[in-house]
Amino acid sequence: MNCEYSGKKVIVEIGPGDAPVLDSFREVTSRVAGGTAKYLAIDKYKPRDSLLRPKLFVQGAISSIPLLSDTVDELWLMNVFAVLRLKDDFDCSPVRNQSGISSQDRHYLGELARVTKLGGIINIGEYYNPDIVKWLMEIDYKDFALEKTVFTDVNLAEFLKKYQMIPERVSLFFKPPYPDTFFMTLTKV
Ligand SMILES: C[S@@+](CC[C@H](N)C(=O)[O-])C[C@H]1O[C@@H](n2cnc3c(N)ncnc32)[C@H](O)[C@@H]1O
Q: What gap in Å lies between CA 157 and CA 165, rounded to an integer?
């Protein structure tokens, strides 16, 4: 799928589920509402309630993102990697593998890097099961031509402020002091 939007920034979210960033980060919402950006959602499963489905929605998986290479300015994945680690996407236990990067993870990260434009960013956040995917913060992204900035504990507020997160819209679980929560920005260089 091509996603050229005549000069507008292309924002793509993978795995929005029932809580798309378009609803929960005011800064993203205002860019889309103001017409400077377009938002497309990709999820393996269609939200059953069509009202919860973003207007531009494509069914697809992170293992084979249905987008051409170098087309996305801003990619968002909130609480998706932890789910990819579970035996089944809907089964919250048992956890398949808690530590280290697997070849499958490498493939997922490669897909994210592939669709991102040079200078584009990938925002990854984990606040439901951050302990399962701590490795995401720890690995080196040079092989993927990505540079990481991690937001946790001390500088977490910086990320939340930049994108104007609306905590009550994000999740009932997202409450101060946000133990172990982290966000990460990967920039394609
Ligand atoms: C825990 S939910 C997170 C939903 C939302 N981002 C949030 O933070 O509340 C994980 C989401 O990832 C989606 N998902 C699971 N496996 C996926 C895959 N292989 N490719 C794309 N999306 C996937 C699920 O359908 C679900 O919407």
A: 10
C-beta 15 within 6 A of ligand 1: yes
- Overall pTM > 0.85: yes
Answer yes or no: is 3 within a domain: no
Domain presence at residue 129: yes
1 in any annotated domain: no
Angle at 110 (CA atoms; ends 92, 154), nearest 5 degrees: 65
Q: In this structure, what CATH number is given to the domain that contains residue 40?
A: 3.40.50.150
* Residue 108 CA to ligand 1 centre (angstroms): 13
In a domain, residue 166? The reply is yes
Q: Which residues pair with 76 in a beta bridge?
A: 13, 123
Each residue's pLDDT expressed in tens, for the chain with a length of 189 residues: 555 566 899 999 999 988 899 988 999 999 999 999 999 999 999 877 666 667 789 999 999 999 999 999 999 999 999 888 765 444 444 444 455 688 889 999 999 999 999 999 999 999 888 888 889 999 999 999 999 999 998 899 899 999 998 877 766 667 766 788 999 999 999
User: For residue 15, how far is its CA from the centre of ligand 1 (angstroms)?
Assistant: 4
Q: Indicate which residue's Cα is closest to atom 14 of ligand 1.
A: 15
Beta bridge partners of 147: 187
CA of 57 to the centre of ligand 1 (A): 13
Domain that holds residue 73: 9-188
